[in-house]
Design goal:
This protein is α+β, with helices and mostly antiparallel strands and 201 residues long. Helices cover 30% and strands 26% of the residues. The protein has helices spanning 20-36, 43-56, 143-146, 151-158, 168-184; strands at residues 7-10, 64-70, 73-79, 83-90, 93-99, 123-128, 135-141, 193-199. The strands form two sheets. A four-stranded antiparallel sheet has the order 1-2-3-6, covered by helices on one side. The longest helix has 17 residues, at 20-36.
């Protein structure tokens, strides 16, 4: 999560590949740099990045979730089988707004940012700033977390916050608590959760 701007990236390295972790870290750095520079994450941009990373980390794979917001609205971009959910604060309460589509073939295998022999077609969740929403909350989750957490779990994490502006500590505590809940429910995969909160101007 960017220290001062509403930008965030979460990449999940493929288990069983030789460089899944380093690849995911490098992908996060590349995507964050692109978002900072105002680059739109088009299929062509992501294909080019994928080719570059695949040369550097052969026989490996990773997924992508990217969040960006500005005074015009917000966008979540996803490639692969990670989870993203968006919530809006309306009429004094949090409400589920959208779930990002997950890329899987008929056999349940994920399309990935790197490591899949198919064209990249990112899933998008976009919202305009002109919607009367006071604030948004987004959860970006690897499949090791998202597969073990429900929309109700995420809403419960938002209840103590209400419409107040949470501190970084609050966000980290909520995210870590959800990741721990996923592990307690039986996840043996990477259980990463990134919680993002943005107040509309």
């Amino acid at each position: 999560r960017h220290a001062s701007r509403p930008l965030a990236v979460l990449c999940d390295g493929a288990n069983g590949t030789p460089h899944g972790g380093p690849l995911a870290q490098a992908a996060c750095q590349h995507i964050m740099a692109a978002l900072e520079a105002g680059v739109c994450l088009t299929p062509q941009v992501l294909d080019d990045l994928s080719a570059t990373l695949e040369r550097q980390f052969p026989d490996s794979g990773c997924t992508l979730l990217a969040y960006e917001a500005n005074d015009r609205g917000l966008r979540i971009t996803g490639v692969g089988d990670s989870f993203a959910e968006l919530f809006a604060h309306r009429q004094g309460q949090w409400q589920p707004e959208d779930q990002l589509g997950r890329h899987q073939d008929a056999n349940g295998h994920p399309t990935q940012l790197v490591g899949a022999d198919v064209p990249i077609s990112p899933h998008l969740c976009e919202r305009s700033a002109c919607t009367g929403v006071a604030c948004w909350a987004a959860f970006l989750m690897t499949d090791g977390a998202g597969a073990y957490l429900s929309t109700a779990d995420l809403l419960e994490a938002l209840l103590p916050i209400g419409e107040q502006t949470p501190s970084d500590h609050d966000l980290q505590f909520c995210a870590e608590s959800l990741a721990e809940l996923a592990v307690a429910r039986g996840s043996h995969d990477d259980a990463s959760v990134l919680m993002i909160w943005v107040r509309q101007a």
